[in-house]
Structure formats: C-alpha cells, structure tokens
Amino acid sequence: MADHLYKEPILTLRDISMQFGGEVILRDISLDVLNVVRPGVSQGQVVGFYGRSGIGKSVLCRIIAGLLPPSTGTVLVADPQRPVCPGDVGFVQQRYPLFNHRTLLDNLLVAAGRKHSPADAKAKAEEFLTRFDLAPHRRKYPAMLSGGQRQRAAIAQQLLCSEHLIILDEPFSGLDIAMIDEVKKIILEVTTLDELNTVVIVSHDLATTTALSDTLWLLGPERDAAGQLLPGATISKKHQYNVADMGLAWQPGIQAKPAFVQLIEHLKDEIRKA
Amino acid sequence: MLKDLFVPNAKPRPSVFLTMVACQVLFLLLLWLFYPLQLFPTLGEVLASFKDLVTTQGLIQELWASLTTALGALAIATVLALLISYLTALPFFRPIAYAASKMRYLTLTGLTFFMALMLSSGHQVKLSVLVFGATVYLVTGMTSVILTTTQEEMDHARTLGMSEWRSFYEVVVLGKLDEMLEVVRQNFAIIWTMITLVETLYQSEGGIGLLLYKQNRYLHLAGVVAIQLVILGTGALQDYVFAFLRRMFFPYSELTVAK
Ligand SMILES: Nc1ncnc2c1ncn2[C@@H]1O[C@H](COP(=O)(O)OP(=O)(O)OP(=O)(O)O)[C@@H](O)[C@H]1O
Ligand SMILES: [Mg+2]
C-alpha cells in the first residue's frame, strides 16, 4: 500500500535503560518515530503506548520529556535531531498537576504566553476553555475543580504551549464518554494540524487508543534464549506495531472491523503474558 | 445541636460554637473570681493594676513602642530570611541557610554582648538582636517549606517550557508565598519573647518589656499578670490579622484543608 510513506525522524530513542538504585526498570529501548506522509493530508503521528501497571511507562515518558536523564542512552528530538531538553516535549503527567496558586484561566494564560502575544494568548486560552467545557469555571482555583476538569485543564495547558511533541499519560482515565470523545477529537485535530505534530498516548484503554494510533508500543519484560526472565522491561521489535502498515489507521469506525478486533485481542494476550 | 460539640469533626453552627466559647471564658473568669489561688492575684487586683498601668505608666504608649519595634524587626527579618531561603536554589548558598538555621541554638545573652561590642547605639543593638533572632527561626521554617516542593510540581513547570529560574519562581516563590506568610505568623511570637528581654537590657527606649521588668522587680504580681494578658491579647489580634491577610491575598491557600 502506497497511501503513506515515511520521511525524517521526529523522535529517536537510542539504547535507553534506567535503573533506580540497582533496580533495573527499563532496558535497551530503541525506537524511531518517523514523519509519516500521506498525500493530501497533513498527517501527524499518534503512538499508543501500553504496558502493565508499574512496568515503567511513566518513567519512560519522563525520560522522553527530558525530565529524567536515563542511566544510558539518548533521546533525540527536532529537525535536525538533537538531544532533548525539558520543555521540548509537552507532557501531561498522570496526576494532572496545575499551578494551585493560579486560577484556571491564569493557568492557561501562563502557558499560552510562551508562544503567543498577550492578546493572542487570551484568545487561545478562551478557545480552549470553551472547547473543553471549562468556560464557567475560569475563575476557579485548581483545588475547586473536579478530577476530569483538572485533567482537561492540564491537557489544554500543554497543548497551548507545546511544540510538536506531546505525551499524554493516561488521558482517558476518569473521563465520561462525552469527554473521551472530546479528547479524541482534540488529539485528531492536533495531529492533523501539522505534519510534524506527534502525540504519545499512554493508556490502559486499548480500543480507544489503538483506533487513534498509527504506531503501538508495548512495554514488557522479556525472556532470554534459555527462557529466563530478564530484569527490566523493554519494547522489543516484536512489540512495536505499525498500525498504518496493517491498514488499520486513520479510519473512522475502525473499531468494528474484524482485523481491528483481532489486533486488540492479540494485544490483550501479549499484555497478559507479560 | 449541643451533642455536636462532642462528635469528632462535627461542624456546630457558628452561634452555638461562639456561645460555647463565651461560656468557657466566663467559667474561667468565675473560677478566678471565686477561688483565688494563694499567690496569684485576684481578678479585681489585676483590673485595678491594669487601670493604673494605663493611666499613670503609659501602658498603651509602651505597647505601641514595642509593637512598632517588633514589626520593624519582623519586616527586615522576613526580607532577609526569604532571600537566604530562596538562594538555597543555588548550591553555593546552601551552607549559609544551613548555618543560619542552626544559629537558633545561640543564646540571646551572648549574642547581645557581641552586638553591643559591634554597634554603638542601644537602638541598633536592640533591633539587630531582634532581627537576628527572628531571621534564624524564619529561615528554618522557610527552608522547610521550600523542601516540600515535589518533583511533579517542578516537572510540570519545566514541561511548559519554563527555564529553571522561571520554574523556581513559579513553583517555589509564587506557589508557596502563602505558606511563607504562615511561617512569618508562627514566628512572630519569638520576637515578643525576645523583645521583653532586650528592652530590659537597653532601657533608654522604654517599651512594654521594661514595664514588665519593673513590675517584676517590685513584686507587683497583679501588674505582671495584667501586662502578660495585654501581650497575649496583642498576639491573638496579630494572629487574626495574619489569617485575614492570608485569606485576602491567597484565597486558594485553604481550599484543600479539611473543614
Ligand atoms: N524515583 C524512583 N525511584 C525508585 N523507583 C522508581 C522511581 N520512579 C519509579 N520507580 C519504579 O519504577 C517502576 C515503574 O513506575 P512507573 O510509574 O513508570 O509505572 P507505570 O508503568 O507508569 O504504571 P501505571 O500504569 O500504574 O502508571 C515502579 O516499580 C516504580 O516503583
Ligand atoms: Mg504511570
């Protein structure tokens, strides 16, 4: 199928491993996210990132975001590729931190101010408030918001100031169906806005996330030739899925197709085995 | 209603609660009135002595003099302590904060002696002793507030593209200003304990400490109690003002507290 091809690298992980005080968490992770090009669309990249709880997904996210130096290896971003610095990659952390001393609107404004002039920042912040159903709460402090509202606010904050790369650590947990749809819509919008925009979604919701993705990573433990469990988790070649090449990416209503259902079942089995 | 007063974490109506407090105070006063302790002055004696202190010895003026000195010292100490604690962001300055906080253990008397050697006027000695004493306590409280900053908070600021300094300013300086005010409130009391002592050493400027000292010296127990009560009242008022300021400037600061 020639409906898409791959160009320059956007995100590269080379031999990443991570230990905390001798405990190996991640081992030998090498990944490439390439700019996928489809004729007629500015198609960004979406990576679904799975793995058992406690396996090291959030740790890898922090490494990719440049917040945690890995024990070995490098993360490269941008074009031409260079080592990542904090701020290069937007990262919505699992517990949705916001500035507790600022109102919701202020939280968005301080983020929008990074890329926009004050007037534009105001307009952008207002736009996100409306889109995420947060407009009536603009004057509230984060402590007064519901869990889902905080989460949307945190996502909006990162979207307002991120460059091309953004990581969402469990963006669907705790949201109702309408809001999941809204977040899905926004991810689609972000990734079709610019050729280079790339979203990594950490999630336990396989169906929702896979339907959005063109690439999947599955982080899990591995056995050596003798069948012994190796310390630390990795994303082996076998566990890097190219959904686009399978012909299962970028299609609305994909979730009903037998091939998609099969893929989900396969992923579930792989995760259970881990 | 009344039994609410003995249920854990209950929220009695404000009117009920205030009535209860009034009854407790009244009970204490009655106890004092009808069961005088042997040495302890009676309520009547204390009141008489209070009247005398106000009319003939200028209690109000002395209180005002002490209060302004205390506030001045607190202001200087707060600025100094904030500076020292914020500078802990730079490894170079960390030993200074550490040393400053350990100076809490220095005794006031020895300190006063040194200050007196270095400075000429009594007023300067008084002020610098107060500033020094308050600063070391404030630095201790403030650095411990700064140490509550979490990795998540700092990472959040960094992912928004803020530089290290900007992240520090946003999360530690702006984000914890309300807690710093609380540290200042808690440590204001230290200044009061010091001021009464320092005023007796440098008597030229008077102050409520000197007044207290004189009452002590002439064994005017009723006067001592009266002055102590005045200081207690001033302290309570101060606490109230600080709480008010905190609510006014940092409306977010008590949102997560259990009510
Ligand atoms: N700073 C640290 N020091 C020591 N161990 C750590 C540290 N941070 C994470 N770990 C360990 O690394 C492992 C992976 O943690 P991580 O938060 O990445 O899990 P996760 O895959 O995101 O799980 P979940 O799906 O539950 O969020 C855990 O066992 C955790 O205890
Ligand atoms: Mg996690």
Overall description:
The complex is a heterodimer of chains A (274) and B (259). With 274 residues, chain A is α/β, with parallel strands linked by helices. Chain A has two domains: 5-88 and 166-178 and 191-273, Rossmann fold; 97-161, no CATH class. Chain A has seven helices and eleven strands. Chain A has helices at 57-64, 104-112, 118-131, 147-161, 177-193, 206-212, 258-273; strands at 5-20, 23-37, 45-51, 72-77, 82-83, 89-92, 165-169, 198-202, 215-223, 229-234, 240-242. In chain A, strands 3, 6, 7, 8, 9, 10 and 11 form a seven-stranded mixed beta sheet that branches. A four-stranded antiparallel beta sheet of chain A has the order 2-1-4-5, with helices on one face. In chain A, a hairpin with a 4-residue loop joins strand 4 (72-77) and strand 5 (82-83). Chain A is globular. Chain A starts with a strand and ends with a helix. Chain B is mostly helical and 259 residues long. Chain B has a single domain (42-249), classed as MetI-like fold. Chain B is built from eleven helices and no strands. Chain B has helices spanning 14-34, 43-56, 59-86, 94-102, 108-118, 122-146, 151-159, 164-174, 177-201, 208-217, 221-249. Chain B is flat, with a radius of gyration of 23 Å. The relative contact order of chain B is 0.11. The model of chain B has no long low-confidence stretch (mean pLDDT 89). The chains are: A alpha/beta (274), B mainly alpha (259). The A-B interface holds A 62, 65, 67, 86-87, 89-91, 93, 95, 97-101, 110-111, 114, 141-144, 157-158, 161 and B 152-153, 155-162, 170-171, 174-175, 177-178, 250-252, 255-256. The structure holds adenosine-5'-triphosphate and magnesium ion (MG). The site of magnesium ion has 4 residues of chain A, from helix 1.
